[in-house]
Amino acid sequence: MNRYLSFIFLFLTTFCFALNPVKEYVEHPANFNFKYEQHKLETEDGYLLNSWLCLPSKETSNNTVLVVAYGDAGNMSYLLRQVDELVKNGFTILLFDYRGFGESQDFLMDEKQLYYDEFAIDLKSALEFASNRFKSSRIGLWTLSMGSIMGTLTAESNLFSFMVSEGFVSDPNSIVEKLKEYKDEVYLLPKSSSHYSEELSKLSIPVLLFAGERDGLTTVEESQRVTFLNPKSEIVLFKGGHLQGFQALSGTYHGEKYIKAITNFIKAL
């Protein structure tokens, strides 16, 4: 693992479930071989979000768009190495930064708030952009950790037809309890969290879940709850902790088995 990937791994596993937005980008799509476009997305409540649309060649395109909803730390640049491999395999990827992250518009946050409902508004804006831009393509959502909450909250929008998720959160309250136990810190939840279980029960689209057998926060049991509620969901287990799936499921290239699982899942839809 090179120094860049080591840094990303350390960052994500150290700051998981602690709001820690980073304004500066550690990488940029201009440094990769794929074509990209930068867009400013406006949310329904007037915030401007920075986004990168990463495009495969016409020859390799699989006519599938993945909108990425990442976790609660860093910014979209931390995922560019994974995105590079996905684009090589034909996926169109839309990355965006939540308000207050990266070069998106500033947003005052309490670091002890587990998440903000406004992030779901941001995701909806990204999904609307993708749906309008790629009317003849399959639109899916790739969520990571906290991003799975945003995905669940926007599932009824009918703006995406499937979800790929790693570190799925089936109960935000359980995360708060674990953080209190492990870190002896109290985290806050938005009022809407009291209705999250109801939103989860409505998640009826196909969902592919990656679950780490050593993940103490978003456990395998969290993902199994989704498969219990949703017969269109399935789990891929890996030997690793929180958000280590891409690394753990590598092969001849970074994330090979991870990407093949996504590809096979989509082909079966």
From TrEMBL:
<dbReference type="InterPro" id="IPR022742">
    <property type="entry name" value="Hydrolase_4"/>
</dbReference>
<dbReference type="InterPro" id="IPR029058">
    <property type="entry name" value="AB_hydrolase_fold"/>
</dbReference>
<feature type="domain" description="Serine aminopeptidase S33">
    <location>
        <begin position="64"/>
        <end position="155"/>
    </location>
</feature>
<protein>
    <recommendedName>
        <fullName>Serine aminopeptidase S33 domain-containing protein</fullName>
    </recommendedName>
</protein>
<dbReference type="Pfam" id="PF12146">
    <property type="entry name" value="Hydrolase_4"/>
</dbReference>
